[in-house]
């Protein structure tokens, strides 16, 4: 097991744990994040069980989590971490470019989903976005998921939801593309503050706790479709 908490360093504003069963993958992510001010990799783990042990013993703000690992995989580790430490943000970093994997990760509680071929800019962007409390989802993978669900029957749910307004539907679509509030504001030509209010209304209407879970709920209910199919 690899379990290497950083020793003797000052406490950074953002403490990151990297979890992956491949040493080179951990080293690559650590090298990318090491160049960013205000971010420090405080530990590494090579499976989900080691990750759970680490967050129980050391303060962590963000976990970069692999999906497929021995002992405890990334999905189960995410569920357990979020249950015990809901404030910790988790970004799944994986080779699994499949809609089913994305949905499972979102249901487990991840705030971001990155593919392992992501560029340095995408990785840093995802980290910064999640730290702001916004979701980061791979746009191509979200599009694949929407296209698949366009052919599926929406989830049958006995709990009715309050209908979304046309503007809320627009905001939800862009939110699910991984866009930030500022990016949504620019596209819809409204203020970021107005976007924030719309997001809060969407979360309340869908009966979820955050924007990532709003995306999951919208996918399950078939509220958002691929734009090309509208």
TrEMBL record:
SMART domains: HTH_LUXR, REC. Keywords: DNA-binding, Phosphoprotein. Residues 157-222 form the HTH luxR-type domain. SUPFAM superfamilies: CheY-like. The lineage of its organism: Bacteria, Bacillati, Chloroflexota, Chloroflexia, Chloroflexales. This is Two component transcriptional regulator, LuxR family. GO terms for biological process: phosphorelay signal transduction system; regulation of DNA-templated transcription. GO terms for molecular function: DNA binding. The modification 4-aspartylphosphate is found at residue 66. Residues 15-131 form the Response regulatory domain. Transmembrane segments: none annotated. The keyword DNA-binding applies. InterPro entries: CheY-like_superfamily, NreC/VraR/RcsB-like_REC, Sig_transdc_resp-reg_receiver, Tscrpt_reg_LuxR_C, WalR-like. It comes from Roseiflexus castenholzii (strain DSM 13941 / HLO8).
